[in-house]
Amino acid sequence: MKKTVLAICGSTRSQSANLFIIQYIAAVLANDVKMEVYDGLTQLPYFNPDLDKENAPPVVETFRQKIASADGILICTPEYVFSLPGVLKNAIEWCVSTTIFSEKPVALITASASGVAAHQSLRLVMKTIYTDLRDDTQLLIQGAKGKIDPYGHVSDAITAGQLNALAHAFLDQLHQPLANQTNG
Prior knowledge:
Blueprint lengths: L2 E7 L7 H12 L4 E6 L19 H12 L2 E6 L8 H8 L11 E8 L3 H13 L3 E11 L14 H19 L9
Parallel strand pairs: 1-2, 1-3, 3-4, 4-5
């Protein structure tokens, strides 16, 4: 049976390098994984703890359910002003009062011009909410626009190799009992 992965793109651009990377990973894992790309980041309201006391807004509940029902989560994001994009951070904040990310296998890719600060921030956030995060399912792609052609194809052989390795490590993670995994 195919594993299910919810992919979250931190960029809202229709032709973003991050979305192309998600599509690349989906193609690599097509025989083993059913991947859904979540496209509702811009519909989530700004996080407000007062709205999260008993019942969160329906769009938030739908997002949370998608996370809860997925076997794993793939996040691919750019870096904006040395940080995570606001829409991505907002989406994660809506999940902090829950345990839906706890011990959930997660793969992280930061693809941007630099990306160092956003990648470090995302790693910290994911560790804080107790995701199952491994070193081999994390990747920082610097100079991302130069590694993906105008048609959305990964044109850099080293990057393609890194993405293939991450995809297969993530697939392995999805099939491993949690006790056999190490947090990175």
